[in-house]
Amino acid sequence: MSIDAASLRASSAAARPRGRGRRSTWASIGLHGALVLASLIAVFPVFWVVVVSFKPDAKAVEATPTLFADSSLDNYADVLSGAKGSFLAWFGNSVLIAALTTVLGVLLAASTAYALSRFRFPGRHWMLLSFLVVQMFPFAVLIVPLYNVLLTLGLQGSALGLVLVYCSTAIPFCTFMLKGYFDGIPADIDEAGRVDGLSPWGVFWRLVLPLARPGLAVTGFYSFIVAWSEVAFASAFLSAADESKTLAVGLQVFVQQNRAEWGHLAAASVLVAIPAVIVFYAVQRFLVSGLAAGSVKG
């Protein structure tokens, strides 16, 4: 028994929802044109920073700049060789601080979020509220009290003190994010692990955390970016010595009151952005699912 192709098209057209009309050609052109324009506007500043990074300082701010004229790798050579600032020392400090902040922040936030998701204890709701309230304060308000705390502990001017400061600002957001993700993991998995003889820590470490990898990726990336690009706390809590600065603070040496080395600043900015881009691409497959789960659950 053969079926007419025309009847198949007619039946499929009848089954198609009437509320969804096909977008017209001009509407599609307008939509794609707007998306292309928005993409160009977003990408152009980054592209121009890359272009300026290859130009001498005097040519970087010309009224009629050229795209490829006078381009060279001299700015990158000066920055990496130490002729312009202690870039490699700043880079090492930033890597150390960002790595410690990411590891400590994710571990503390994950354990706290798991406890808030699975257990009911007195003060649980007040604890969640306190995390929310902490996020409402701008960083500038926290500098003085945190400075006094670090001074009392003897950690003022040290990398460890700055790591603790970054953890105190990153953990509340990370805890909220991970709690929403843990709420979406069935509690039956915990019970099955305890039946198999796992301790509460074993259930958390061996069963729950592997299932929460998207949420951990989001919180890890957030903690890394907080420590990698933050300026105010790093300027206030680290030693004034040039070798003790982080990258975000060290870049200020290229723009002083009486001079501005825009070419070297652009080159250093490109080098600073590379590790953040690498980390982003390493966790990008987890970001969408982790953000969606943490935002709609719990």
From TrEMBL:
TM spans, by residue? 26-51, 95-116, 128-147, 159-178, 261-283
List UniProt keywords, sorted A-Z: Cell membrane, Membrane, Sugar transport, Transmembrane, Transmembrane helix, Transport
Q: Which Pfam families match?
A: BPD_transp_1
Q: How does it sit in the membrane?
A: Multi-pass membrane protein
Instruction: Cite the ABC transmembrane type-1 domain residue spans from the record.
Output: 91-283
Q: Where in the cell is it found?
A: Cell membrane
This protein's major location comes to membrane
Q: Which residues form the signal peptide?
A: none
Looking up SUPFAM superfamilies in the UniProt record yields:
MetI-like
Q: Which family does it belong to?
A: Belongs to the binding-protein-dependent transport system permease family. MalFG subfamily.
The name of this protein is Carbohydrate ABC transporter permease
Q: Which species is this record about?
A: Saccharopolyspora ipomoeae
